[in-house]
Design brief:
mainly alpha, rod-shaped
Protein backbone atom coordinates (compact mmCIF):
# COMPACT_ATOMS: atom_id res chain seq x y z
CA UNK A 1 0.00 0.00 0.00
CA UNK A 2 2.82 2.40 0.85
CA UNK A 3 4.51 1.72 -2.49
CA UNK A 4 1.28 2.51 -4.31
CA UNK A 5 0.90 5.79 -2.40
CA UNK A 6 4.48 6.75 -3.24
CA UNK A 7 3.87 5.89 -6.88
CA UNK A 8 0.75 8.10 -6.96
CA UNK A 9 2.57 10.92 -5.19
CA UNK A 10 5.48 10.73 -7.64
CA UNK A 11 3.07 10.79 -10.60
CA UNK A 12 1.29 13.79 -9.14
CA UNK A 13 4.54 15.66 -8.55
CA UNK A 14 5.78 14.81 -12.03
CA UNK A 15 2.55 16.12 -13.55
CA UNK A 16 2.80 19.34 -11.52
CA UNK A 17 6.39 19.83 -12.62
CA UNK A 18 5.43 19.26 -16.24
CA UNK A 19 2.61 21.80 -16.02
CA UNK A 20 4.94 24.37 -14.41
CA UNK A 21 7.45 23.83 -17.19
CA UNK A 22 4.75 24.43 -19.79
CA UNK A 23 3.71 27.69 -18.11
CA UNK A 24 7.31 28.88 -17.93
CA UNK A 25 7.93 27.92 -21.56
CA UNK A 26 4.88 29.94 -22.64
CA UNK A 27 6.03 32.97 -20.65
CA UNK A 28 9.54 32.74 -22.04
CA UNK A 29 8.16 32.44 -25.54
CA UNK A 30 6.28 35.73 -25.09
CA UNK A 31 9.37 37.42 -23.71
CA UNK A 32 11.43 36.08 -26.62
CA UNK A 33 8.90 37.43 -29.11
CA UNK A 34 9.03 40.88 -27.50
CA UNK A 35 12.82 40.85 -27.45
CA UNK A 36 13.04 39.79 -31.09
CA UNK A 37 10.62 42.54 -32.07
CA UNK A 38 12.56 45.18 -30.16
CA UNK A 39 15.85 44.03 -31.65
CA UNK A 40 14.41 44.03 -35.18
CA UNK A 41 13.11 47.59 -34.67
CA UNK A 42 16.44 48.78 -33.32
CA UNK A 43 18.36 47.19 -36.18
CA UNK A 44 16.00 48.80 -38.66
CA UNK A 45 16.59 52.21 -37.07
CA UNK A 46 20.35 51.69 -37.12
CA UNK A 47 20.25 50.67 -40.79
CA UNK A 48 18.17 53.73 -41.60
CA UNK A 49 20.58 55.99 -39.75
CA UNK A 50 23.54 54.39 -41.52
CA UNK A 51 21.83 54.91 -44.90
CA UNK A 52 21.12 58.55 -44.03
CA UNK A 53 24.73 59.15 -42.99
CA UNK A 54 25.93 57.52 -46.21
CA UNK A 55 23.60 59.66 -48.30
CA UNK A 56 24.42 62.89 -46.47
CA UNK A 57 27.97 62.58 -45.09
CA UNK A 58 28.30 66.35 -44.58
CA UNK A 59 25.04 66.75 -42.65
CA UNK A 60 25.61 68.53 -39.36
Amino acid sequence: MILFERFLEKRYLDRQLSEQREVIAERLSGIRDQLESTLANNLSLINGLAAFITAYPDFT
